[in-house]
Specification:
Length: 327
């Protein structure tokens, strides 16, 4: 098939994101003719490329438009308007999962546990649950731990007000305050549509995390820190296949992941991030419909553990998408 691999331009900025080459090779191994297509800052060139050289299907990993995560769903919406087939979730799914507050509202309706929360926008309270400190504060429409640092965790009113005001200033948007779930963190990859399967669970191992800090996958943990403690959170975290999780808990986590995927009307694939407290209650932290498909990242690693190698996985996503359209 004629395929366009659609991604943002920052994936091509040094250091070039390895996922582009990996996907390109995997799709070619599936017999597809692959063209790279970049979502830039304006829509016209994109529309021209897509209409002048119409692909049979778009492999869509564009997570933003013009650098804005909040516009992610509009890229998929554009593909819909151009009547193109594409992999991954629809605009509706991307909007629901792309907004952590909306996600929580939908999951709660389906009796899927998420941390209790409050939201504030321009000083006004939008919703205030019966929440207790400590809380974690975040911009609800960002990703990649943008805006998440040790200061995101607040223990009293003074810290709460300070962090709300700095987040509002930085992101010019609402702030989501959630109860901090103290416990282990897990990632569950899911794949499928009519028959959705969860991969083996992965855990964010915080064993090497700096002493005395609340254990979170902060910006610094994911990408490395430029500050004094260079790399301490980054060096102290890694994803592993845990060996000390009961079969019962693992199965429950997989069920929660599949339920969340379906509740948010996602398609083809996603990665669900969970936290589990001491009572083994499972909380959904967020759902990533457009999760990172790099070969060594959680989603593809977990697929590998399930016996699905990288090329098979990527081409399975294409088959799943095609099957939706040919129904
Ligand atoms: N309610 C919470 N309780 C405990 N830790 C949390 C909570 N929410 C987020 N975190 C921590 O912050 C990290 C990033 O938060 P997340 O909501 O997944 O944002 P992003 O979309 O940027 O990945 C999580 O991986 C987790 O370590
Ligand atoms: Mg996350």
């Amino acid at each position: 098939m004629k395929m366009a691999l659609l991604h943002t331009k920052d994936a091509l900025e040094p250091p070039v994101d390895p996922v582009i080459g990996q996907l390109d090779a995997a799709l070619k191994s599936g017999g597809h003719e692959v063209t790279n297509l970049v979502v830039g800052d304006s829509v016209q060139p994109l529309v021209s490329s897509l209409t002048e050289n119409r692909p049979d299907i778009v492999f869509n990993i564009a997570e933003s438009f013009a650098g804005k995560s909040a516009l992610e769903s509009n890229v998929a919406a554009l593909l819909n308007l151009l009547d193109l087939r594409y992999t991954g979730s629809s605009p509706a799914g991307l909007i629901l999962a792309g907004d952590k507050t909306l996600t929580k509202k939908v999951l709660t309706f389906h009796s899927i546990l998420t941390a209790k929360f409050a939201t504030v926008f321009r000083g006004a309270v939008d919703w205030a649950g019966e929440i207790e400190f400590p809380l974690i504060l975040k911009p609800p429409q960002e990703d990649g731990s943008l805006g998440i640092t040790q200061k995101s965790i607040v223990h009293d009113v003074r810290e709460l007000l300070e962090t709300i005001s700095s987040l509002q200033e930085e992101f010019q948007g609402p702030v989501l305050a959630e109860e901090f779930i103290d416990g282990r963190e897990f990632y569950v990859g899911v794949l499928g549509n009519s028959d959705v399967k969860a991969f083996p669970i992965m855990e964010m191992d915080f064993t090497g995390y700096p002493e005395g800090r609340p254990k979170i996958a902060s910006w610094a943990a994911k990408w490395g820190d430029e500050g004094d403690e260079k790399g301490a959170e980054f060096e102290g975290t890694r994803s592993i296949f845990p060996t000390n999780v009961s079969e019962e808990l693992a199965t429950r986590m997989q069920k929660v992941a599949v339920d969340a995927f379906q509740a948010l009307r996602l398609r083809d694939y996603a990665r669900v991030d969970l936290r589990v407290n001491a009572k083994e209650e499972i909380y959904v932290i967020e759902v990533n419909p457009n999760c990172y498909l790099e070969q060594t990242a959680e989603f593809a690693s977990a697929a590998g553990k399930a016996g699905i190698d990288y090329n098979t996985l990527i081409n399975r996503i294409v088959e799943l998408a095609n099957a939706r359209y040919s129904r």
